[in-house]
Design brief:
Elements: H1 9-25, H2 30-45, H3 50-55, H4 67-79, H5 83-91, H6 94-99, H7 107-117, H8 122-130, H9 142-160, E1 162-163, H10 164-179, E2 184-190, H11 191-194, E3 199-200, E4 203-209, H12 212-220, E5 225-231, E6 235-240, E7 245-251, H13 256-264, H14 267-279, E8 283-284, E9 289-291, E10 294-296, H15 301-307, H16 323-328, E11 343-347, H17 358-367, E12 372-378, H18 390-407, E13 411-419, H19 430-433, E14 438-442, H20 451-463, E15 469-470, H21 488-498, E16 501-505, H22 515-523, E17 528-531, H23 543-552, H24 566-578
Parallel strand pairs: 4-7, 11-12, 12-13, 13-14, 14-15, 15-16, 16-17
Antiparallel strand pairs: 1-3, 2-4, 5-6, 6-7, 8-9, 9-10
Helix pairs in contact: 1-2, 1-7, 8-9, 17-18, 20-21, 22-23
Bound molecules: 2'-deoxyguanosine-5'-triphosphate and calcium ion.
């Protein structure tokens, strides 16, 4: 429920927009829905203080806000609730609200499906598609049916996975709870979480204990557990209060390294290891390693690898992406580590859409022990994010000059996150671009270009002499928005040719460049900058998610731009500027 103090203009707009959607879902007269949409648009454009307007009873003077809507808004602002909205919302079948998440399916179509086929849930809709019921339906057809099915698949997939960052805390709590239990000999996180994957399906934990049954009971009755879906002596499956599933495997201590290796995966990596063992006259599985009937005792994963004539392969590399060959040839990368990071680029302030001042972002960087921070607010055409005009850039640069005198040894680089316009040019004339120490070029508009056009657009930005780094190269939002169509191998080639850096955006929703492409970029000698894209001081800590993915992408400290120390970085940026 919304409370009086939190009813802002934004909340009102959101509720009006939702009413418009609900009316469409209910099949009401389209004019009614448009009236709410229209009111929302006009409120958005309003440049007078909204609350003052409501209190002064002047809201009905805003175009598009008639008496009925005005009354409802007043009720919302005064009481924190709007009865009309509440009752409308509760009249909508919950399944229809879920269907709104299916790409390509709007409220009008959902209503039509309800009217003509009585569909109330995503499951019913999927069934109807499989039965081809949409093909002859007015306003639908085969193509729409196929699109809806694809959208449902995506929705299902997304529901099955979660962001690494969303799950990691729960996993640590379970891990600590087990590590503190005296019946536990050894315990480790396994599965995709241990491999530092960007999204995970569930939490896998392996523990060894001589008191398996007792331990199973302890785990199943933990305070985080909402549902126990399976409980044996060797495996306990639960759903946590957060909705995340977790599996605990309990083994004898001598089996521990074998179970850990197996349940860390990946499945593909395990398959290759099994083949390798077989070729050497051995057999490997989750219980142990054998030569004929002889059980080869291993104390650790290192020992198992060593029996397979391999050095230890870090879990994050176990994806069958060439790690076994690299291990065999002594070419495993020495992975970048948190302690190798010297500074951070891609930091926003309240000059544009950041929540905090330049001073506080700089202060936070100082507290992290960094040698430098690169400020990059949005550029002018990003009006929705308060992009910087020439005057604001000058003011920011002056402030940075002053801070640089005070903050030494921490150094502040002047940068910008410049929009790449649809034609591939950057968002400022050369004389402004020249005033920055670094430029991060970014796509924030026209996401729907065909692949060839988008690739050309980004390549052209990379060829711009002022571009230093390409921001979030695919624009994806994990589990929420697909990458835009772009030929990443071509982008990597262009970056290699022009000596440009690609960003590994560390925001846990992005983690873009994808780690698989980091492997490729590294092979082509393209440097990666692990950037927090911080919009508030706490956002700087997202860097740790970026470092995990950098490791998963085989990056060494020499591959990462922001592992350069301050002197090296000043020289690097100067050299690029004067090229
Ligand atoms: P996820 O859960 O989808 O994020 O990814 P994982 O890798 O954690 O997958 P999960 O939880 O199904 O299984 C954990 C590990 O157990 C997996 O990485 C390897 C091992 N594993 C599971 N099923 C199989 C299998 O059928 N064959 C082999 N070789 N290993 C398996
Ligand atoms: Ca898993």
């Amino acid at each position: 429920m919304t409370s009086v103090s939190t009813v802002t203009k934004e909340t009102v707009i959101k509720i009006l927009e939702e009413i418009a959607v609900f009316l469409e879902l209910s099949g009401e007269n389209p004019f009614k829905s448009s009236a709410y949409q229209n009111a929302a648009r006009n409120l958005e454009k309003l440049d007078i203080d909204f609350i003052t307007l409501v209190k002064g009873k002047k809201l009905c003077e805003v175009p598009g806000i008639g008496e009925a809507i005005n009354k409802k808004i007043e009720e919302l602002v005064e009481t924190g609730k709007m009865a009309y909205y509440e009752s409308l919302r509760s009249s909508i079948p919950p399944g229809h609200l879920e269907m709104l998440k299916i790409t390509g399916l709007g409220p009008k179509k959902i209503h039509a499906l309800y009217e003509q086929l009585g569909i109330k849930t995503v499951g019913e809709l999927e069934y109807a598609c499989h039965e081809n019921h949409l093909i002859d339906l007015k306003g639908f057809g085969k193509k729409t049916q196929d699109n809806i099915l694809a959208g449902i698949e995506k929705l299902k997939h997304y529901k099955e996975r979660r962001l690494y960052a969303e799950v990691a805390n729960d996993a640590m709590v379970l891990f600590s709870m087990l590590a503190d239990n005296k019946d536990v000999n050894r315990v480790s996180i396994a599965g995709s979480l241990r491999r530092l994957a960007e999204t995970v399906k569930d939490i896998d934990i392996v523990a060894s204990s001589a008191q398996a049954e007792k331990l199973a009971g302890y785990f199943a009755s933990g305070p985080q557990v909402a549902v126990v879906s399976g409980k044996g002596i060797t495996k306990v499956s639960v759903t946590l209060r957060t909705g995340i599933n977790a599996d605990l495997r309990i083994v004898a201590d001598q089996e521990f390294p074998h179970a850990l290796l197996h349940f860390t995966g990946s499945k593909e990596h395990n398959t290759v290891l099994r083949g390798r063992a077989k070729n050497r006259g051995m057999k490997i599985n989750e219980y142990g390693l054998w030569r004929g009937t002889e059980n080869i005792v291993c104390q650790s994963e290192e020992e198992i690898f060593s029996h397979l004539a391999l050095p230890y392969i870090p879990p994050e590399l176990r994806e069958n992406m060439g790690e076994i060959e690299a291990a065999e040839n002594g070419n495993l990368p020495v992975l970048v580590d948190e302690k190798d990071i010297r500074g951070l680029f891609h930091v926003h302030t309240n000059f544009s859409d950041g929540a905090q001042t330049l001073e506080s972002m700089v202060g936070a960087a100082g507290e992290m022990g960094l040698q430098y921070i690169g400020i990059s607010d949005h550029s002018q055409s990003a009006y929705y994010a308060g992009g910087l005009k020439k005057k604001e850039i000058e003011r920011q640069h002056k402030l940075i000059d002053e801070l640089n005198k005070k903050c030494a040894p921490l150094y502040i680089f002047k940068g910008i996150e410049a929009d790449i316009l649809p034609d591939g040019s950057l968002d400022y004339p050369d004389d402004i671009l020249r005033s920055f120490d670094f430029v991060i070029a970014a796509i924030h508009s026209n996401f729907n270009m065909p692949e060839e056009e988008m690739t050309r657009r980004i390549k052209s930005a990379l060829q711009n002499p002022y571009t230093t780094i390409l921001a979030h190269p695919t624009g994806r939002l994990l589990l929420a928005r697909e990458p835009y169509a772009v030929n990443i191998p071509e982008i990597i080639e262009t970056a290699a040719l022009y000596g440009k850096v690609l960003e590994l955006n560390a925001n846990p929703h992005r983690l873009d460049l994808d780690w698989r492409n980091c492997i490729h970029a590294r092979k082509r000698g393209v440097k990666i900058s692990i950037n927090p894209d911080a919009h508030h001081a706490a956002g700087l800590a997202d860097i740790s998610f970026g470092i995990k993915i950098a490791r998963k992408g085989w990056l060494e400290k020499g591959d990462c731009l922001n592992c350069l120390n301050l002197d090296e970085m000043k020289k690097y940026l100067n050299r690029k500027k004067n090229n």
